[in-house]
Amino acid sequence: MSRLLPRLTVLLLLQLVLFWCFQQPELMRRLEAPLEDWRIRLLSPAAVEPDPRIALIDIDDASLAQEGRWPWPRERTAALIERLQSYNPALIGIDIIFPDDASGNPPLAQALGRDNVTTSLVWGKSPAAPRGEIPDHVLCTSGCEHLPRAGSWISNAPALRTEEQAHITPITDPDGNVRRLYPLVCHVSGCVETLALSLMRQLTGVPPAYQIDTAYSSTRLTDQTGLLNIPLAEDTSLRIPWHHPRYAIPWVSAADVINQTLPEGWLDGRILILGSSAVGLHDRISTPVAADFPAAEAHALLLQGFLDQRIWHTPPPANGSAQAAALFTTLLLTALLIRQHPAWALAMGLASNVLWFVWVMLRQQHGEFWPQLPLLASSTLTLGVLLPWLTLDALRARDILRRQFSQYVAPQVLERIRQHPDRIIGADPERSTMTVLFADLRKFSAYAEQIDPEQLALTLQQLMDRFTQIIYAHGGTVDKYIGDAIMAFWGAPLADADHARNAIEAAQQLCFTMEQISQTPDMPPLQLSVGVNSGEVVVGEFGSSYRRSYTVIGAPVNLAAHLEAATRMTDAPILVGDATQALLPDYPWSAPLTLNLSGHPAPVKAWPLYTNAQVL
After folding, report:
1. Band of the pLDDT at 33, cuts 50, 70, 90?
2. Residue 131: its pLDDT value, please?
3. Cα within 13 Å of Cα(274), Cβ side
């Protein structure tokens, strides 16, 4: 826990910074934009039926090739607009500005002065000398302080001023893409609508008066009748619905209008927007669906959204829900990682992001934009901070386990420990019921005095290798080698429900093997004495700050050592403590012995065991 606390502190600080970022609308908009753009492209249909209500009249390259380079003479532009009027359109929006003086050109002024024509202007926030006049008949009656203010503008020359004027200025984000515009912009004497909103208002016939409603944690633009009710962002901007493919709004070449080659009645009753897609006129913008997109279509798509009552927006509960999901997932992932479940944490992080992504995609199909970044960023941060540390800890722990237990247990047991380090008994000192074995070579000291040290070391190594193999084969743990003796125990580091039986079988096999070894040439007639006892001991790492070892401590351990020494007072090579016998009551024990052992004030009952006995 001491190593984990600094990591959790680092994670907490980073998450606090991240959640602070989530509270910054402009920053979140910039960070979320690439994800939104990707989803917009993902959901864009391959093709749709052209909208029968709207048409874009395009001064395209073919029109310029026929009529000459832009700007055209005013009479030719006026003739184009009059020709459009002959098709009986509902409304005409002009996505072109005529800022130059045209006092000597009545035809254009007359063409633009029709009741169903809306001209355009552009505006900026920075104060500068305006060019042209700006309309003042559109009003804002409530919440106007939330709207942007026009510090400057460029509109048509005074002689070409019309009653209905609308702005065509989009919002260009820092990455150069256009995703939004302001539906309503105010100035000193009034307000000006965006082209799509102006056309929609004229189509519905509602009065040119709006209010900004910020109740219930949402921002909405409404008119006095309530017919127009448009959800906005906190800065009163409006998303442009870029989800349609190119030509979802039908485009008509201006050359076809001038040449009168359109089918009869094809433009009747439509809302027409006159603009240009010609590359040389530089009226193209970068959008989420295309890097080079005609700006006029942005207004047509927004108008289409108004007509379909499908306005792209972020609903009020979206941000709070996204942050709540991020917080819950962060806590869950942290808990799983603290409990050493990295696979579960990765699966949970992936599953939560996939489920949230599915939800976001479903809502976006209905025009609702729910944030994807909070959950993605917070879960990635949690996994990115804790997972590498925990992986290093796991690798370090496995290395420690390898070094700590490789000298005590069989390779197959060591592999189980590596796979399940959480199951180790005695990782921290603890009490556990186990069985302990001491085995010692009788009269080995006398034998050692008769041979040279090199032969002594080789013989002892060979014997201990055989003993160790037997202990490992019966699931035991070698505690230590004590000269010509060996100490082992069962029940740790992995639990063993049959620790008593396995220890007894190992003791019999040890003595039987020693009898066979003693009968081989060049080996002394040595015997093995074994003491076995069970009981509650303390198991774990003990020692000093210089050296520690994994061992067992307790009265049952001492008794096992005393029983091994007491075999010399009997004819049995193995003496088993009363606690071990109680764990194997069905074993065909011989009659117990009563022994007086040093360190034990009362007589001790011991059960003799021989190598030819069989454990049931």
Report:
1. very high
2. 86
3. 24
Collapsing DSSP states into helix, strand and coil, what is residue 404?
A: helix
DSSP string covering 471-515, please? HHHTT-EEEEEETTEEEEEES-SS--TTHHHHHHHHHHHHHHHHH
Query: What are the strands, taking DSSP E only, across 291-389?
Result: 293-294
Say what the pTM is.
0.69
Q: Once rounded to an integer, what is the mean pLDDT over residues 7-15?
A: 83
Contact 607, 576 (CB under 8 A): yes
Most confident listed range (147-156, 408-417, 450-459): 147-156
Question: SS3 of 241, please?
Answer: coil
State how far the Cα of 21 lies from the Cα of 25, in Å rounded to an integer: 8
**Separation of CA 344 from chain center:** 13
Contacts of 212 (CB under 8 A, 6+ apart): 140, 142, 143, 144, 146, 147, 219, 220, 221, 232, 236
Give the range among 25-29, 120-124, 358-362 with minimum mean pLDDT: 25-29
Burial code of 267-301, b = ≥16 C-beta within 10 A, e = fewer? beebbbbbbbbbeebebbbbbbbeeebbbbbbbbb
CB atoms within 10 A of CB 514: 25
How far apart are alpha carbons 77 and 69 in whole angstroms?
Answer: 12
Using only the alpha carbons of the chain, give its radius of gyration: 45
Name the residue among 599, 580, 407 with its Cα closest to residue 503: 580
CA distance 286 to 175: 9
In sequence order, the 6+-apart residues with CB closer than 8 A to the CB of 515 are 527, 611
pLDDT tens profile 132-180: 888 888 898 898 888 999 999 999 888 888 889 999 999 999 999 999 9
For 140, the 3-state DSSP assignment is strand
